[in-house]
Write a structure and sequence with these properties.
By secondary structure, the protein is an alpha/beta fold. The protein is built from 10 helices and 8 strands.
Protein backbone atom coordinates (compact mmCIF):
# COMPACT_ATOMS: atom_id res chain seq x y z
CA UNK A 1 0.00 0.00 0.00
CA UNK A 2 2.79 2.39 0.78
CA UNK A 3 4.89 1.83 -2.32
CA UNK A 4 6.82 4.79 -3.63
CA UNK A 5 5.16 4.77 -7.04
CA UNK A 6 2.61 7.48 -7.63
CA UNK A 7 -0.14 5.15 -8.84
CA UNK A 8 0.44 2.85 -5.84
CA UNK A 9 -0.06 5.57 -3.24
CA UNK A 10 -3.32 4.96 -1.32
CA UNK A 11 -6.10 7.52 -1.63
CA UNK A 12 -8.87 8.45 0.80
CA UNK A 13 -11.64 10.47 -0.85
CA UNK A 14 -13.99 12.69 1.16
CA UNK A 15 -16.88 13.89 -1.00
CA UNK A 16 -19.98 15.80 -0.03
CA UNK A 17 -21.91 19.06 -0.33
CA UNK A 18 -20.70 22.48 0.70
CA UNK A 19 -20.53 22.99 4.45
CA UNK A 20 -20.73 19.32 5.40
CA UNK A 21 -17.40 19.52 7.24
CA UNK A 22 -15.40 17.51 4.70
CA UNK A 23 -12.70 20.17 4.50
CA UNK A 24 -11.94 20.10 8.21
CA UNK A 25 -12.18 16.31 8.30
CA UNK A 26 -9.78 16.01 5.35
CA UNK A 27 -7.27 18.37 6.97
CA UNK A 28 -7.39 16.45 10.24
CA UNK A 29 -6.96 13.12 8.46
CA UNK A 30 -4.02 14.33 6.40
CA UNK A 31 -2.28 15.62 9.51
CA UNK A 32 -3.10 12.54 11.59
CA UNK A 33 -1.73 10.06 9.04
CA UNK A 34 0.99 12.25 7.51
CA UNK A 35 -0.62 12.21 4.05
CA UNK A 36 -0.75 14.75 1.25
CA UNK A 37 -3.92 16.83 0.91
CA UNK A 38 -5.92 17.84 -2.15
CA UNK A 39 -8.64 20.43 -1.65
CA UNK A 40 -10.24 20.16 -5.09
CA UNK A 41 -12.82 22.82 -4.27
CA UNK A 42 -9.99 25.31 -3.89
CA UNK A 43 -8.94 24.58 -7.47
CA UNK A 44 -12.33 25.64 -8.81
CA UNK A 45 -12.33 28.66 -6.51
CA UNK A 46 -8.93 29.53 -7.98
CA UNK A 47 -10.32 29.38 -11.51
CA UNK A 48 -13.03 31.78 -10.40
CA UNK A 49 -10.53 34.07 -8.68
CA UNK A 50 -8.21 34.23 -11.68
CA UNK A 51 -11.21 34.79 -13.95
CA UNK A 52 -12.36 37.75 -11.88
CA UNK A 53 -8.87 39.20 -11.87
CA UNK A 54 -8.91 38.82 -15.66
CA UNK A 55 -12.29 40.64 -15.86
CA UNK A 56 -14.12 37.57 -17.19
CA UNK A 57 -17.90 37.65 -16.74
CA UNK A 58 -18.68 34.55 -14.67
CA UNK A 59 -22.41 35.05 -15.16
CA UNK A 60 -21.85 33.85 -18.73
CA UNK A 61 -19.36 31.05 -18.16
CA UNK A 62 -20.25 29.00 -21.24
CA UNK A 63 -19.13 31.88 -23.49
CA UNK A 64 -15.70 31.77 -21.88
CA UNK A 65 -15.23 28.01 -21.45
CA UNK A 66 -12.08 27.78 -23.59
CA UNK A 67 -10.48 30.76 -21.83
CA UNK A 68 -11.35 29.39 -18.39
CA UNK A 69 -10.05 25.95 -19.36
CA UNK A 70 -6.72 27.45 -20.42
CA UNK A 71 -6.49 29.31 -17.11
CA UNK A 72 -7.12 26.07 -15.21
CA UNK A 73 -4.37 24.26 -17.12
CA UNK A 74 -1.66 26.67 -15.98
CA UNK A 75 -1.84 26.74 -12.18
CA UNK A 76 1.12 26.78 -9.80
CA UNK A 77 -0.64 25.90 -6.56
CA UNK A 78 0.38 24.54 -3.17
CA UNK A 79 -1.55 23.44 -0.07
CA UNK A 80 0.24 23.86 3.25
CA UNK A 81 -1.20 22.43 6.47
CA UNK A 82 -0.52 24.56 9.55
CA UNK A 83 -0.93 24.27 13.31
CA UNK A 84 -3.18 27.35 13.38
CA UNK A 85 -6.79 26.34 14.24
CA UNK A 86 -8.07 29.57 12.70
CA UNK A 87 -6.30 28.91 9.37
CA UNK A 88 -5.39 25.19 9.22
CA UNK A 89 -4.75 25.23 5.47
CA UNK A 90 -2.84 27.87 3.51
CA UNK A 91 -3.33 27.97 -0.27
CA UNK A 92 -0.81 29.71 -2.50
CA UNK A 93 -1.07 30.60 -6.17
CA UNK A 94 2.22 31.50 -7.84
CA UNK A 95 3.71 31.82 -4.33
CA UNK A 96 1.00 34.31 -3.28
CA UNK A 97 -1.20 33.48 -0.27
CA UNK A 98 -4.80 33.56 -1.54
CA UNK A 99 -6.40 31.62 1.32
CA UNK A 100 -8.74 34.31 2.58
CA UNK A 101 -9.91 35.27 -0.89
CA UNK A 102 -10.82 31.66 -1.60
CA UNK A 103 -12.86 31.21 1.59
CA UNK A 104 -15.42 33.89 0.82
CA UNK A 105 -18.98 32.94 -0.07
CA UNK A 106 -18.57 34.77 -3.40
CA UNK A 107 -15.64 32.50 -4.25
CA UNK A 108 -17.83 29.49 -3.49
CA UNK A 109 -20.52 30.72 -5.87
CA UNK A 110 -17.91 31.31 -8.57
CA UNK A 111 -16.56 27.79 -8.03
CA UNK A 112 -19.98 26.25 -8.65
CA UNK A 113 -20.31 28.25 -11.85
CA UNK A 114 -16.99 27.20 -13.37
CA UNK A 115 -17.29 23.61 -12.11
CA UNK A 116 -20.16 23.06 -14.54
CA UNK A 117 -17.80 23.39 -17.49
CA UNK A 118 -16.42 20.14 -18.90
CA UNK A 119 -13.36 21.91 -20.30
CA UNK A 120 -12.39 23.28 -16.89
CA UNK A 121 -12.85 19.91 -15.22
CA UNK A 122 -10.75 18.20 -17.90
CA UNK A 123 -8.00 20.80 -17.52
CA UNK A 124 -7.82 20.23 -13.77
CA UNK A 125 -7.81 16.43 -13.95
CA UNK A 126 -4.06 15.95 -14.51
CA UNK A 127 -3.28 18.51 -11.80
CA UNK A 128 -5.47 16.62 -9.32
CA UNK A 129 -3.85 13.30 -10.25
CA UNK A 130 -0.42 14.82 -9.59
CA UNK A 131 -1.25 15.11 -5.88
CA UNK A 132 -1.33 11.31 -5.63
CA UNK A 133 2.09 10.40 -4.33
CA UNK A 134 3.65 8.49 -1.45
CA UNK A 135 2.87 8.08 1.35
CA UNK A 136 -0.74 8.70 0.26
CA UNK A 137 -3.43 11.29 -0.33
CA UNK A 138 -6.61 12.62 1.24
CA UNK A 139 -8.75 14.14 -1.53
CA UNK A 140 -11.62 16.47 -0.61
CA UNK A 141 -14.27 17.43 -3.13
CA UNK A 142 -17.47 16.62 -5.01
CA UNK A 143 -16.35 13.92 -7.46
CA UNK A 144 -13.14 12.57 -5.97
CA UNK A 145 -14.50 9.05 -5.50
CA UNK A 146 -16.62 8.93 -8.65
CA UNK A 147 -14.45 10.59 -11.33
CA UNK A 148 -10.99 11.71 -10.21
CA UNK A 149 -9.93 8.70 -8.09
CA UNK A 150 -12.45 5.93 -8.85
CA UNK A 151 -9.91 3.35 -7.64
CA UNK A 152 -9.46 4.99 -4.22
CA UNK A 153 -9.07 2.49 -1.38
CA UNK A 154 -11.35 4.47 0.95
CA UNK A 155 -14.35 6.53 -0.16
CA UNK A 156 -16.43 8.62 2.22
CA UNK A 157 -19.50 10.66 1.33
CA UNK A 158 -20.08 13.17 4.12
CA UNK A 159 -23.34 15.06 4.24
CA UNK A 160 -25.60 17.05 6.57
CA UNK A 161 -28.90 18.85 6.24
CA UNK A 162 -28.85 22.26 4.56
CA UNK A 163 -30.19 23.79 7.78
CA UNK A 164 -27.36 22.34 9.85
CA UNK A 165 -24.74 23.44 7.33
CA UNK A 166 -26.15 26.98 7.24
CA UNK A 167 -26.13 27.20 11.04
CA UNK A 168 -22.50 26.02 11.21
CA UNK A 169 -21.41 28.54 8.61
CA UNK A 170 -23.38 31.26 10.39
CA UNK A 171 -21.60 30.51 13.67
CA UNK A 172 -18.19 30.46 11.98
CA UNK A 173 -18.77 33.88 10.44
CA UNK A 174 -20.25 35.39 13.60
CA UNK A 175 -17.27 34.14 15.62
CA UNK A 176 -15.06 36.05 13.18
CA UNK A 177 -17.12 39.20 13.70
CA UNK A 178 -18.76 39.02 10.27
CA UNK A 179 -22.40 40.12 10.18
CA UNK A 180 -24.45 37.77 8.02
CA UNK A 181 -28.03 36.58 7.59
CA UNK A 182 -28.74 32.94 8.50
CA UNK A 183 -31.59 32.88 6.00
CA UNK A 184 -29.38 34.18 3.20
CA UNK A 185 -26.73 31.56 4.03
CA UNK A 186 -29.36 28.83 3.87
CA UNK A 187 -30.57 30.04 0.47
CA UNK A 188 -26.98 30.23 -0.81
CA UNK A 189 -26.25 26.67 0.33
CA UNK A 190 -29.43 25.36 -1.26
CA UNK A 191 -28.60 27.12 -4.53
CA UNK A 192 -25.09 25.64 -4.56
CA UNK A 193 -26.51 22.19 -3.78
CA UNK A 194 -28.82 22.49 -6.76
CA UNK A 195 -25.99 23.61 -9.04
CA UNK A 196 -23.71 20.80 -7.89
CA UNK A 197 -26.26 17.97 -8.05
CA UNK A 198 -28.02 19.01 -11.25
CA UNK A 199 -25.07 19.87 -13.48
CA UNK A 200 -24.51 17.64 -16.49
CA UNK A 201 -20.79 17.12 -15.86
CA UNK A 202 -19.65 15.19 -12.75
CA UNK A 203 -22.71 15.92 -10.62
CA UNK A 204 -22.42 15.63 -6.85
CA UNK A 205 -23.33 12.08 -5.87
CA UNK A 206 -21.85 9.31 -3.72
CA UNK A 207 -19.76 6.61 -5.36
CA UNK A 208 -21.42 3.20 -5.33
CA UNK A 209 -18.77 1.89 -2.94
CA UNK A 210 -18.63 4.98 -0.69
CA UNK A 211 -19.46 4.91 3.00
CA UNK A 212 -22.23 7.45 3.67
CA UNK A 213 -21.96 9.48 6.86
CA UNK A 214 -24.63 11.98 7.94
CA UNK A 215 -23.07 14.64 10.17
CA UNK A 216 -26.27 16.59 10.82
CA UNK A 217 -26.30 15.68 14.51
CA UNK A 218 -22.62 14.82 15.00
CA UNK A 219 -19.69 17.07 15.87
CA UNK A 220 -16.38 17.10 14.02
CA UNK A 221 -14.61 14.88 16.56
CA UNK A 222 -17.27 12.17 16.34
CA UNK A 223 -17.17 12.18 12.54
CA UNK A 224 -13.37 12.16 12.50
CA UNK A 225 -13.14 9.15 14.82
CA UNK A 226 -15.68 7.28 12.71
CA UNK A 227 -13.72 7.94 9.53
CA UNK A 228 -10.38 7.09 11.17
CA UNK A 229 -11.81 3.69 12.11
CA UNK A 230 -12.83 3.13 8.48
CA UNK A 231 -9.43 4.22 7.15
CA UNK A 232 -7.56 1.98 9.57
CA UNK A 233 -9.78 -1.00 8.73
CA UNK A 234 -9.38 -0.50 4.98
CA UNK A 235 -5.66 0.31 4.86
CA UNK A 236 -4.45 -1.79 7.77
CA UNK A 237 -1.36 -1.14 9.83
CA UNK A 238 0.42 0.73 7.01
CA UNK A 239 -1.23 3.94 8.19
CA UNK A 240 -0.78 4.76 11.86
CA UNK A 241 -2.33 7.99 13.12
CA UNK A 242 -0.15 10.19 15.30
CA UNK A 243 -1.43 11.17 18.77
Amino acid sequence: MMAAGITDAPVVTIDGPSGSGKGRVSQHLAQAYGLHLLDSGALYRLVGLVARRSKINLAATTKHESVLSNLAADFNITFQLTEDPEEPLVVTLDNQDVTRELRSDAAGVDASRVARLAGVRDSLLDLQHSFRRAPGLVADGRDMGTVVFPDAEVKIFLTASAEARAERRYKQLKDKGIDVSLHDLFLSIKARDDQDTERDVSPLMPAEDAVLIDATNADIDEVLEQIKAIVTKKLGDSLVPTP
